[in-house]
């Protein structure tokens, strides 16, 4: 994986005078995100530009990022007791296969996000809607926000998000578990809990998100928000 974590790992390995090969399928999780935040001296940079700069730095150490998808990693037991790994990969869109043998393998493949199944949510993801409060909360500060999720930590996440905006509605989509005690605590903080199921997100590409559409037809006006996804490792 040639995201920030993988690039940083490869840089450290190269500077330690170890041979390193970077394999990357060029399908970053944050492909929909317009800007990355929190990197000192690079705050607001395009994620793709950040990856490009990292690859250019590695090139100075003779390390190239190979655009290929890893299909399997298998241990090889050598006679002298040294364990090595057979890495099999293929170029995206082709059947051209590559085999490499490595003494160690660093998995920096990141996570796969599982978002609520709403028809047009992906159309607003990365612009009006985000998953990382720490990454994009500043840009949405003081806006009428939605927090959409189906996980049992939604109330806890709402308290955290309230640091960025006092106008917050939590949408459980009829799934997330928020106890009566948690709802009272949120209400005391001025945070409304909406337990009805969601039909879709309202808005257009030109104007952005304008609200959350409930299954009974009511539209709750919101101009931005955060989604609480589920995550699974991008391996397997």
Low-confidence stretches: none
- The helix-strand sequence is HEHEEEEEHEHEHEHEEEEEE
Reported for the largest beta sheet, the result is:
5 strands, parallel
End-to-end CA span: 14 Å
Give the amount of beta strand, in percent. Answer: 25-35%
Features:
5-stranded parallel sheet, 3-stranded antiparallel sheet, 6 helices, 15 strands, 236 residues, alpha/beta
Structure in words:
This protein has helices at residues 4-15, 47-59, 121-124, 133-136, 154-161, 180-188; strands at 22-24, 65-67, 69-77, 83-90, 97-102, 111-114, 129-130, 145-149, 168-171, 192-194, 198-204, 208-214, 219-221, 224-228, 230-233. A five-stranded parallel beta sheet has the order 7-14-8-9-10, covered by helices on one side. Strands 3-4-5 form a three-stranded antiparallel beta sheet, with no helix packed on it. A three-stranded antiparallel beta sheet has the order 11-12-13, with no helix packed on it. The chain has six helices and 15 strands. With 236 residues, the chain is an alpha/beta fold.
């Amino acid at each position: 994986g040639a995201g920030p974590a993988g690039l940083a790992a490869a840089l450290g390995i190269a500077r330690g005078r170890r041979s390193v090969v970077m394999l990357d399928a060029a399908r970053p999780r944050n492909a929909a995100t317009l800007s990355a935040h929190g990197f000192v001296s690079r705050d607001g940079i395009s994620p793709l530009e950040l990856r490009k700069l990292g690859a250019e730095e590695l090139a100075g150490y003779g390390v190239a990022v190979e655009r290929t998808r890893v299909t399997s990693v298998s241990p090889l037991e050598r006679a002298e007791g040294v364990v090595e790994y057979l890495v099999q990969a293929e170029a995206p869109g082709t059947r051209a296969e590559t085999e490499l043998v490595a003494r160690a393998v660093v998995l920096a493949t990141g996570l796969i996000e599982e978002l609520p199944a709403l028809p047009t949510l992906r159309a607003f993801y990365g612009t009006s809607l985000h998953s990382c409060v720490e990454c994009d909360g500043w840009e949405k500060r003081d806006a009428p926000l939605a927090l959409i999720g189906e996980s049992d930590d939604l109330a806890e996440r709402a308290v955290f998000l309230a640091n960025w905006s006092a106008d917050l509605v939590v949408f459980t989509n009829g799934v997330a578990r928020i106890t009566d005690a948690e709802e009272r605590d949120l209400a005391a903080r001025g945070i409304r809990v909406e337990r009805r199921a969601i039909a879709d997100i309202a808005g257009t590409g030109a104007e952005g998100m304008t609200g959350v559409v409930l299954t009974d037809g009511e539209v709750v006006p919101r101009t931005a928000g955060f989604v609480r996804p589920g995550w699974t490792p991008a391996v397997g």
